[in-house]
Every structure is written in C-alpha cells, then in structure tokens.
Amino acid sequence: MARPTKEGLDYFPLYVDIFEDEKIEAISGEFGIKGEIVVIKLLCAIYKNGYFILWNDLTIAQMLKRLPGISKDLLNNIVERLVLWEFFNKDLFHSVGILTSENIQDIFLEATKRRKSPKPTLYMIDENQVDNDNEIVNVNNNSQADGVNVDINAQSKEKESKEKESIERDSISIYLSLFNNALKNKTDKFCLSQIARNYDLDLLYQEICKSSWLKENLVLVNASNKFLNKILKGHYRNFKKIKSENSFKNFKQQTDSMSDEDLEDLARAKRDKIFKELKDD
Asked: What pLDDT does residue 63 have?
C-alpha cells in the first residue's frame, strides 16, 4: 500500500523576535499573553494542515479545546484583529473564511519543495484571487494589449529576486535549528549557508541523524568537502565499530595496571588521532 501523501509540516521556523513584530505587539497590548498564545496556536494549526485553515465553527471548537480559559468571543476578536492588521490575508478571510498569508505560504513552499507532490494552487495568494462568487480566479491573465512595460518588468524581477533571497534565508534558519538540535557541537548560519551552496542540507541532516558518532563529534565549520561527501554517501552511519570480546579483554588487561592519569592520556591521544584523520580528510 502506498504511503499517504503528507499535507502539512512537522515543524516551522519561529523567529526569536516574533513578539517584537508590530502586529503581535498590538495583539499583546490589547489581549495580553492570551493573544500571544492564540497566535502561536493558530500558526501550529495552519502549518499542520499545510498553509491555510478554514475558519469555521469546527475549527473554532477545536481551537477552544486547545486554549483553555479563552472564550469563543475572545478568540474571534483576536482573529479579527490579526486580519485587520494584515497578519492574515484580508481578501481570503472575508471572502471564503481562510486564514493564511504570503509569508506562511512562502515558508510552506520552501519546506516542501523536495516533495514529489505537485505545487499547490488552492488559495495561493501570489497566483490567484477570489471573486465575489468565491471562485478561484487566475490573476495572471493579461488583459492589456500586446507589449511589455520595461520598467514594470524590471521591478517584478527585482521583487522576485528579493523574495527568493528571503526564502533562502528562511530555509537556512530552519536547517540551522535542525542541525543545532542534532549536533553536540553547534554550527552557525554562515557556515550552513556555505555548505548549502554545494550540498543537499536535507540529505546531510538525515545522514548525520543516523550516526550517533557524528552527532557527538562533528563540527560542521571544520568539515572538509571530502569528509562531507563521505557523510552523504553513508560512510559514517556506523563509524564506531564494536570490538570483539577478546579484543576488549586484552585492552582491559592492558589498562588494569594504568593509573587514572595514564588512562586519561591514552584517551586524549586516541581522540586527537581521530580528529587529525578527520581534518586530513
């Protein structure tokens, strides 16, 4: 049986300055900490579903169950403010009751770009708009005479370039969090950006998670291209080999007579040897 197609995300980027955003500050000023937690719960619900949710009685009932102490009226008031201040798209909310935004859709598309499923089109803000009859209408149809305005075309390309750069930054932030959670030795955003130019970060992350040795010892900023290639080929999934019972007994007999300082020196020498081999790679 084929695996069912995954619709939503398992995680999404939550920026450290989200509560300094002017729209969230406005929500906090009017509704306090209850307003802030509603925003987070709404984002979780949206990304779990994909890139939008339908704001109807069923969704409201589900949200109220997840938000004890918050009334239906308060919840609706917070959502209406978020729409008013354009945290969510006004047109889609007032026409078909959809909660989404351009930023939410950009993050979702970047996070799912490697999926084999076709690119979604339903309620996509960049490509479609909603008419008075709640029908999805393509807004890219050219109703003007033939010919292209050079200035508008240049501005469009510049906007697309900036949007692409923004999505790339968001993507690196997502992977930075993933790698920092997986690795004992933390990496940094610049290092990850450099690696992303030549490597598939998703595949690299998957391979690192398969090896406890890599998670304990890998320092990405010091990793050579040759070593990264080996990781991607799966050479370090089972890097720490289990020694045979006889080898362990022989090693134990050798170390029984050593002092604590001798054992520490031996361990340090073995560790330095391993890291030297990694550096040479």
From this structure: 93
